[in-house]
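Researcher: Before we compare anything, I want clean individual predictions. No alignment, no superposition, just each chain on its own. First chain goes here; please echo the sequence and then give the structure tokens.
Model: Echoing the first chain and its structure:
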Amino acid sequence: MPIAVTDPTTGDVLETFDPLTDEQVEEALARAAQTYPAYRRTDPAQRAAWLSAAADLLDAENEDVASTMVTEMGKTLVSARAEVTKCATGLRWYAEHGPAALEPVAMPADAVGAVRAEIRHQPLGAVLAVMPWNFPLWQAVRFAAPALMAGNVGLLKHASNTPRTALYLQDVLERAGFPEGAFTTLIIGSGQVEAVLRDDRVVATTLTGSEPAGSAVARTAGEVLKPSVMELGGADPFIVMPSADLGRAAKVGTTARCLNNGQSCINAKRFFVHADVAEEFTRLFVEAMGSQKVGDPRDESTDLGPLATEQGRQDVEAYVRDAVDKGARVLLGGKTPDGPGWYYPPTVLADITPDMDLYAEEVFGPVAVLTVVQDLTEALELANAHPYGLGSNLFSDDADEQEQFLADVQSGMAFVNGNTASYPDLPFGGIKRSGYGRELTETGMYAFMNAKTVWVGADTGGVEDTTSGRAGSAGE
């Protein structure tokens, strides 16, 4: 079945790609395996230089790359440009910090009876990345930059609706100087992923995407004993307390819900508002959500473009319809507009109950649900009852409330007085059904490296070794 580029503003198919044949996949795997032994021995400074060169190319080609992403998945041109800039920043972060992170880490030699003890982080080989369409360049770069800096080689299976962006990333990395085979885009369908992951030349995998996709890939990785990192769904809580600046909270909350046309795992999706300020915050939030301009993503005044796929919009429609049928109040939006394209309006729902499908699922579109709470403890209980645990947000100027939130919220990331975001400088990932492992910073680079223990003893020149009697030296 061909892989297609479909314009979400019209539904028109613009270009199709034939998936790689089994023979072509074999050629790609063989090339990666042949490249790795020499690539892993390249000087980290050289890898850093190539990453910097790729960042320069992204900056120079920003407009063209951004336009490609708009065409493939409908994000606004403004946000697409920002994504390209963010990718260049990420590449430069690893170019700047990566070499030092690869230096051996000295450990207390005396404590273990050695003259030298250290940890050496060493690459593993070819890592398979299965990536989604919602941030088509950033998701792939935040895998590629640490993997390549580490000395691994990368294999990218991108989403089927973003093949142009996927092929561009391989091209820009090779033009920056990376050897052929260091990073390869595999234009393949989801049905071909398992065979690639089971191949002995692939040593690890990372996936960003849906919970079912993550479960399938993690299951295969477990069967073949290969390390994996999973960044899956999210239904981030956004808690507003009386001490918050309500106007700012409403504005940031709108951005947090509508970012990327409402299609981000770290979008704020569940809003818990203290009863004392619920009426005022609701007014401000509905007003802010309603001010979002929905339209052509190529128009720089547009805030929200279309959803990426027709099925995606149908899913959002079904969640809203189910909630309304079961008693939810529509405070804003909730109706699909007429006309071409897969548009959906900013929507705010209230009176949500556990029997509604959206209560425990992720709605991948600009739909916010509001719940009134009596205090922070109740907000945290409701927030933590959800099966996902990716990001979380609190708006409060109360130091005790901030500490309670940071201590008790069940999430991989906790943001106070700001919306959840990814930065090269901070670890990124979740807990519970949102996945496991971390991306970004040195943590993301080490995820697919061997933390090798190095112990060097003195040459005793034939004198009997007396360390065998030390505690812990006889075995585990």
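Researcher: Okay. Second chain, same rules.
Model: Second chain and its structure:
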Amino acid sequence: MQQPPPGSSGEYGSPPQQGHGAGYPPPSPKKKGMSTGMIVLVVFGCLFGGCVMCSVVRSANKKGSTPPTATAESAKTDSSAESAELPAQQKAAGEAKAVNERETVVVSSSQLFNDYHSNEVAADNKYKGKQLLVTGTVASIDKGPFGGLILRLATSNQFMSTMCKMNDSENATMAQLQKGKQVRVLCESAGMMIGTPSLSDCVFK
């Protein structure tokens, strides 16, 4: 059987295309790569999308919790306000309590006089620098050389007395006081002065 000549049409198919060689398929067209502009757009798109997601997450977290800095500042402000509003009465009560907790020695005017005349050093160790609640009989009501209030209490010695330097707040009570009356005075400290016990900053109790 005779073959058809090259380039002729026949039952074995259409003639090969010109320019690529007989029997070879035409080459595939070259794929074009992404341009630089497209790459930049893709990168910026990814970055923008990531920023949007971070913002959404942060917004959700803020809605569910209070920032620690704000909480600390709020607590600090509340604490300062409470300290500033502490009533003066509470401070005064605290100071009074501290004074009341000091050791208080209860003694009579005669006993105090006898202790100092028996041994002044031992008496100072026992009484000096402490609160003394002294009981006794009023021997005289005087004013000191510089205008202070002086209350003298009788002792076992009829010629000598215990000297109490009264606080100025006791002026009205001193003005109504009479000799021979029994009194109690709370004094801050004791010492010996010109042969007689001397008490300072005394108030009536």
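Researcher: What stands out in the second chain?
Model: Strands lie at 104-108, 131-143, 149-154, 161-166, 182-187, 189-193, 196-204. Additionally, Residues 7-16 have pLDDT under 50 and may be disordered.
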